[in-house]
């Protein structure tokens, strides 16, 4: 569970989120939506402890993330950015294995348990058959599944994704959203992803977090439609 405690975010002199208190429940999928520049990516980076807030704190299971070291945070939170890994001759299973870094020794050697975690992550996203494929030969949709598998292999209770459906065609957008919903519910993870693909997100999400006018409003999907209509003129 993630709790925002009087959280204030900003960029230069601009305030993006002001004195926010909110909670993201465990085992739920939440779509983070808002206009361009509203602060969605900034909020995700603060939740991932990649950036620091102007005020307030993020609490994970009653522990402020500001009190945790890098290794402790890496065992709690995994983050999937918009960047694509396109390294020649790097196998998909090796990309997924990067998620095991918080658990390996100083040489990064994979033990049998680590290999099982990688195999499970590939299976969970339907990419077992691609384990030995070079990642630069994959389509965008396939590559995104590998990035999600890497986050799964990290075995964190929280997964954050920044625009995971960006640059994907329409079928893949729906497939990725359905995959995230399945992972949240079957693996009991708190998953938050920023998106502009409202049509793909709404059928599968538990909640929508609407970031607008320096406020964050988290609503169950059924009661969020009116707010979304006002924000996006749906």
Task: Reconstruct the topology from this structure.
Elements: E1 2-11, E2 14-24, E3 29-33, H1 40-47, E4 55-60, E5 63-64, H2 70-74, E6 77-80, H3 92-97, H4 112-124, H5 140-153, E7 158-162, H6 170-186, E8 190-194, H7 198-201, E9 207-212, E10 215-220, H8 225-232
Parallel strand pairs: 3-8, 3-9, 6-7, 7-8
Antiparallel strand pairs: 1-2, 1-4, 4-5, 9-10
What features would you describe in this structure?
The chain is of the alpha/beta class. It has eight helices and ten strands. The protein has a six-stranded mixed β-sheet, sandwiched between helices. A hairpin with a 2-residue loop joins β4 and β5 (about 65).
Which characteristics define this entry?
alpha/beta, 8 helices, Rossmann fold, 234 residues, 6-stranded mixed beta sheet, single chain, 4-stranded antiparallel beta sheet
Q: Biggest sheet, in brief? A: 6 strands, mixed
* Secondary structure category: alpha/beta
| CATH class descriptor | Alpha Beta
The fourth-level CATH homologous superfamily is P-loop containing nucleotide triphosphate hydrolases
Number of domains: 1
Order of helices and strands: EEEHEEHEHHHEHEHEEH
- Intertermini distance: 31 Å
Question: How many H/I helical runs?
Answer: 8
- At CATH level 3, the topology is Rossmann fold
- Percent helix, as a range, is 25-40%
Strand content: 25-35%
Radius of gyration: 18 Å
Strand arrangement across the biggest beta sheet = 6-7-8-3-9-10
- What's the CATH architecture? 3-Layer(aba) Sandwich
Sum up the overall morphology in one term: globular
Uncertain regions spanning at least 5 consecutive residues: none
Give the overall pLDDT as a whole number: 89
The count of β-strands is 10
């Amino acid at each position: 569970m993630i709790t925002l405690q009087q959280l204030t975010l900003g960029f230069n002199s601009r305030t993006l989120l002001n004195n926010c208190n909110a909670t993201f429940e465990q085992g739920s999928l939440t779509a983070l939506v808002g206009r361009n520049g509203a602060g969605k990516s900034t909020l995700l980076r603060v939740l991932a402890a990649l950036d620091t807030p102007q005020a307030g704190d993020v609490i994970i299971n009653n522990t402020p993330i500001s009190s945790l070291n890098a290794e402790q945070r890496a065992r709690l939170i995994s983050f999937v950015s918009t960047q694509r890994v396109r390294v020649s001759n790097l196998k998909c299973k090796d990309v997924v294995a990067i998620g095991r870094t918080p658990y390996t020794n100083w040489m990064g050697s994979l033990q049998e348990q680590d290999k099982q975690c990688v195999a499970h992550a590939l299976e969970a996203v339907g990419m077992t058959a691609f384990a030995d494929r070079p990642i630069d030969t994959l389509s965008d949709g396939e590559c995104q599944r590998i990035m999600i598998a890497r986050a799964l292999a990290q075995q964190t209770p929280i997964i954050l994704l920044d625009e995971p459906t960006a640059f994907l065609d329409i079928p893949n957008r729906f497939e990725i959203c359905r995959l995230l919903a399945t992972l949240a519910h079957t693996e009991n993870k708190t998953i938050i992803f920023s998106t502009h693909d409202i049509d793909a997100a709404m059928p599968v999400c538990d909640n929508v977090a609407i970031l607008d006018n320096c406020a964050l409003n988290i609503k169950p999907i059924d009661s969020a439609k009116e707010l979304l209509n006002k924000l996006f003129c749906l």
